[in-house]
Design a protein that fits this description.
By secondary structure, this protein is mostly helical. It has a single domain, classed as Growth Hormone, Chain: A. It contains 17 helices and no strands.
């Protein structure tokens, strides 16, 4: 079914008619603006301290990679305990990290080692809380609105990606980078208040039937691997996340070395990604069904690869920004469509664990890719690794479209068979 035009806002209005989701979304958006202000500030600070592609990739790695180590345990927490309480603790820990980062930068005692350590800490905290955040969404809306809620969160995330870098670019240029970290600390208050205002029944701890944490983690992995549709979706996420998406973490290096620009140029590129992603999220938010999600995921993987090829073919900032608009659109379409397939095709008792795997691929694999591309860039420059990744992704999307189309489409109506190993 084709999506309504962007001028038709009825789908978005329907999702926001859910009181809990409206409150949650407003608080989350303010916090997400702060997240993008800090993320750009951290990347710029890492580059200022070292002027090294390796360290730029290493800091991105510290932010995103921990989800590969602890993300599955976050999924067990989300399936066992009250998800709102998990998020509240998580937000207070992130608030503390932002305050410490601001204080050390403001006093001039920050080093690349401390920046790496603080970024690693926040990466672990976010990884543990992400499954609870993702799996909380169905409890905030009517069942028919889950797909729209997933897309609207992507809109929020990428509207923040558009606004946050502009705020950060102004703060860094007019004052200094420490203001970006203080701004982020303040924005956490809005999300904490929103979580406290939600009217939700308390989620009682679920019975484990004597199963240990590692056994439950294994069950989630077995479900994902043995389910043909879910396995194909996760493989697509892994490919896009490792081969091309790391360019978003390496934009400070591209802005400086390739486009010969400063913090304003970095803000332009990052905002271009956000603008494209915002358009993609708004388009998907109007879809009244999950039908077509598999085709969107595969087609936009090809679009992301082409955007990467255009990006490496130019040294003009405006052309690079144009490519990043399409890259942002494709990236958010892949993210929303694959998450929608997981949300609709996986039963609730294992959803937190499968979403934790999806979250690992969304956050952790780009970190590994950024580290690999950043390390290679110190020897061959920034463009060749992205060129290779874009070509491989384009080929992979074509292969996946031919071999796994039926299995992925079955998830759109939750008709894909659950494997026997899933419990």
């Amino acid at each position: 079914m084709a999506a309504p035009p962007l001028t038709d806002l009825s789908g978005i209005a329907r999702v926001f008619s859910n009181r809990n989701y409206a409150i949650y979304s407003a608080g989350a958006w303010v916090s997400l603006v702060g997240l993008w202000v800090q993320r750009l500030g951290v990347g710029w600070l890492a580059w200022e301290l070292t002027h090294s592609g390796f360290w730029l990739g290493a800091v991105a790695f510290a932010d995103l990679f921990p989800v590969l180590v602890v993300g599955l345990f976050g999924g067990v927490l989300a399936d066992r305990f009250d998800r709102r309480r998990i998020l509240l603790v998580n937000q207070f820990l992130q608030l503390g990290q932002a305050v410490v980062l601001w204080g050390m930068t403001w006093m001039g005692v920050i080093t690349i080692g401390w920046l790496f350590a603080l970024t690693l800490f926040i990466g672990v905290v976010v990884a543990l809380g992400q499954p609870a955040r993702l799996s909380l969404v169905p409890s905030l809306v009517r069942p028919a609105d889950v797909g729209g809620a997933v897309a609207i969160h992507a809109v929020n995330f990428n509207l923040a990606r558009f606004v946050g870098p502009a705020v950060a670019g102004y703060m860094i240029s007019a004052y200094d980078v420490s203001w970006a970290f203080l701004f982020n600390a303040v924005t956490f208050v809005a999300f904490i208040v929103a979580l406290l205002l939600l009217r939700l029944p308390r989620q009682r701890p679920r019975a484990t039937n004597g199963e240990g944490v590692f056994q439950q983690v294994g069950q989630g992995i077995a479900y994902a691997v043995n389910h043909p549709g879910i396995a194909a979706v996760l493989l697509l996420m892994a490919a896009t996340s490792f081969l091309v998406r790391p360019v978003f973490e390496l934009l400070p290096g591209f802005a400086d070395h390739v486009f010969l620009s400063d913090a304003a140029g970095l803000a332009t590129l990052t905002s271009a990604v956000g603008l494209g992603a915002l358009a993609g999220g708004l388009w998907l938010a109007q879809r009244a069904t999950a039908l077509g999600s598999a085709a969107i995921a595969v087609a936009c993987s090809g679009m992301l690869a082409v955007a990467g090829l255009v990006f490496v073919a130019t040294d003009l900032l405006w052309v690079g920004a144009f490519a990043m608009v399409f890259g942002g659109f494709a990236a958010v379409a892949i993210s929303v469509s694959t998450q929608t397939l997981v949300q609709t095709g996986v039963p609730s008792h294992v959803r937190g664990r499968v979403l934790s795997i999806w979250g690992m691929l969304l956050r952790g694999v780009p970190a590994a890719g950024a580290l690999a591309m950043g390390s290679a860039s110190d020897y061959v420059g920034l463009k060749p690794p992205l060129l290779l990744g874009s070509l491989l992704l384009l080929a992979g999307a074509l292969v996946l479209a031919r071999r796994s189309r039926t299995e992925m489409r079955a998830l759109e109506t939750a008709e894909a068979p659950a494997p026997a190993a899933a419990t």
